[in-house]
Each structure stands twice: as structure tokens, then as C-alpha cells.
Amino acid sequence: MDRRITTPLTDEVVATLRAGDRLLISGIIYTGRDAAHKRLVELVDKGEPLPVDLKGQIIYFVGPTPPKPGEAIGSAGPTTSGRMDAYSPKLLALGLKGMIGKGSRNDAVKEALKRDKAVYLASTGGAGALLSKKIVSAKVVAYEDLGPEAIRELEVKEFPVVVINDMYGGDLYVEGRKKYERKGDS
Amino acid sequence: MQRGEARRDVVRELDVAQVTEAVAKLAIDACTYLGDDVMAFFEKAIDREESETGRDVLVQLLENANLARDENIPLCQDTGLAVVFLEVGQDVHLVGGSLEDAVNEGVRKGYTDGYLRKSAVADPIGARKNTGDNTPAMLHVRIVPGDTVKVIVAPKGGGAENMSAIGMLKPAQGRQGAIDFIVDTVSKAGPNPCPPILVGVGLGGTFEKAAYMAKHSLMREVGSTNPEPRLAELEDEIERRCNDLGFGPAGLGGRVSVMDVFIEELPAHIASMPVAVNIQCHSARHKEVVL
After folding, report:
1. Do residues B99 and B21 both lie within one domain?
2. With respect to CATH, is domain A3-179 assigned 3.20.130.10?
3. Rounded CA gap, B150 and B18, in Å?
4. Annotated active-site positions of A, please?
5. Which residue out of B76, B236, B283 would a mutagenesis test of the A interface target, given it has the greatest number of A Cβ atoms within 10 Å?
6. Chain A residues 72-131 with CB within 8 Å of chain B
7. Whether the Cβ atoms of residue B120 and residue B39 lie closer than 8 Å to each other
8. pLDDT above 80 for A186
9. For the complex shown, is ipTM > 0.90?
10. Are B153 and B138 in contact (CB under 8 A)?
């Protein structure tokens, strides 16, 4: 059964989320991928304020296609999250509560999720057309020069995700694969 | 004079502007209309997939493809670098400018007019500045008999491309070593490249030929059989082993991890056994036209 949640996320809500749970997210989320993460973490390292307050927020790893006239956004599915592994722990330490992407995270990120009480979520990779329909509005809020990699504020309605890594060390990629793995006689 | 006239009889003139138009249209079509072979695969795989989450993902992928087609939205936000294969008939005389420029103009036009994402960055290990129009095309040209030009456009996303690998294996590793390398590459990729994936394999040749064959093999139709029985058997064996890995659709666990395995092969050097693996996500996009 899909559970409905709204942003921003609180510690109390995060504590109830378990690997394998299916969620429908409504509210504001922020986009950010490689280049934006690099800039954000450079600011963190210099001790300077970020262009967006990430406390309680969710970052969606996405670089959408340009919107057609009259549309809020173009195709908008997740990108591979592993490339953000080098940056995510520093943002989680600032109070970021969730990330949406696809693909495995490294141990440092999984540890940071436990330490900072946060979750890693996945939307379906390659379903960018379908997911764009769950995005009500989009506006660039930082790094416009980065084009598709700019930070956008998205208003989403019932945006479908599944919990991959929870704050207790649960990992759906590991558990799901183990269930269907066949060893030996091939 | 006579020689010139004779040549005009057999040589067909083709304006490269036609190549530009073809590349632009094929890029947009490839990013919007998923091939019937992939759609048919999803439909059949839904019946076969034992995992409920896996089935849900496959249903979403079908819905996504229908929506993309009906509302002209790119299937995926990663509309890729534009890989272009040209098979140019040797009896064609290309006029109207540089062929390479014409292909790049087609990419520029298709990615702009089609509202596709421009994903090319210059100075890849430094400034990584977007080139702004998704050029340059990743162009592969072959000269073939005939008087036509075949244009294939295959937008290639980064997520699956990043999970690809090439192994310059030792001949002593043999068939089993090659299979293990391929399955290991797919296993390490796991959920990252958007499974169910296609596994393109280039066996033999040199370093660059192996990689080229792996990429070119992905132009084959999903579900097609390799005409060489030895390779067809090898493809089946690798597919079975990959599907036993268990990561399933979107990597959430399941039976359907791989859509198909395609192999191209060339003789190798006596000292070498190159094995290239090019991973393709389920959004296996390529369209072609003959001019």
C-alpha cells in the first residue's frame, strides 16, 4: 500500500520509514545533481551559507529536459545517485532529510543516513515522462548558468518513490536481490 | 569527357542537407517513441516476473512509453549523447558541404527543436562546460557497396554507459573467462544502469574495435537470434547467468534483469582476447532511415 507523506520531513516521519516502503510525496522538493552538488559542498567547506536551506528537505537527483511552451517541466526521471556519494554526507550533516535518485549508495552515505536520521529513496529510472506528470510547478532557485543542472524548486503531487536505504541500515537493493538470486548450477 | 559522363551514370548525388534533416528527425523520434521490440519485451516480461515490485516497474515503463508517444514527451530526461552510425554507399557523391558538419547540424537541430536535454560538456576533466547544443555527435562512418546512405541515430544515456567495461583478457582465460568478465560487469552495475538492460558485447579485434562492436551490437532487435549458432548459444548462456543475479527491474529484486545479450565478434591478435561490454538501459533508443 502506498503511503502519502508531505515535505518537509521531520525526524518522527523519517523514523517510521523502512526499506521497501512505497511512498507518494507531496510538497516542495529541490533538484540537484553533479555540478550543483559540487558548488554546494564548496560553500559548505568554506563555511558559507547555501542558496537553499536544506533543513528537513529532499533533494531529487534530476536534470530534466527543457519544458515545452506551456509545460512546467520536461521529462524528469532520476539520475544515478552514486556520483553524489562524495557530496551527500556533508549535506545530510546540515539537516537534509531525503534524497531521490536511482542506483546504489556507498557505505559513507549509508552511515550518514543512520547518523543524521535520513532516507535514500528511488523513483523509477527511465520513467521520466510519467514522473513529469507528478510535478506541478518548477522554478530555478540557484545556479541558472548550469542549465539542466541548475537547482530547481519543484512542487510535486503524489510523486511515487520507494525507500531504498532507511536510517536503520535497511537496504532494499541488497535485500531484494538476495531474494531472487540463484547461485551455482548455471 | 567520356569518363566524366560514365561516372555520372553510376554515381548518385546526395545533398548532405538531407543527412541533417534525417539526423534531427531520428534523434527526436528515438527519444520519444520506444521501439516495438522493447514494448513487446515489457509486455511478456510482466507475465514472467515473479516479484510484485518488479512487475509494477515494468507496468510503469509501459505506461511511460505510451505517455511519451501520446504526449510527445521524451521517454527519459537523459536524451544522451547522439551516437550516429552512417553506412555510406560507395556510389554516392555527397554534395553541399562537409558530412560531419551536416551530422552535427542535425544533432543541434534535433536537440533544440525537440526540447531534448543537451548533455555534452567540453573539457571533461576540468571545467565541464556544456557545449549548448549536444554536439559533437559520436559519429561512426562505414563505406559500403551501393548508392544509398543509411543513417542510424542512437541517443546513449550516461547512467548505462558508465557501467560499461572493456577487458584485455589473457587468451588462457578462454570462453569461461570471457563469460565471467561479462557477468561480473553486469553484476557490479546492478541497479545503476536502469535494468532490465541490454548487454552489448564485442569479442576480439583490437581495443577500439571491441568497444565499437559492443556498441554497434545494440542496434539489433530485442529477441532476435544471432545468425551464428555458436554465438547464439553463448548469448543465451550469458543471459541466463545475468538473470540469475536477481536484481530485477529497477534493481528492486526480481527475475527480469536483462532484456537480451548481443554479441559481435572479430578475429583477435595471437596475444590478445579483448572483451568489451556496453550496457544499454531499458530505454533502448535507436531509429534509422535509408536515404
Report:
1. yes
2. yes
3. 12
4. 37
5. B76
6. 74-77, 79-80, 82, 102-104, 122, 124-130
7. no
8. no
9. yes
10. no
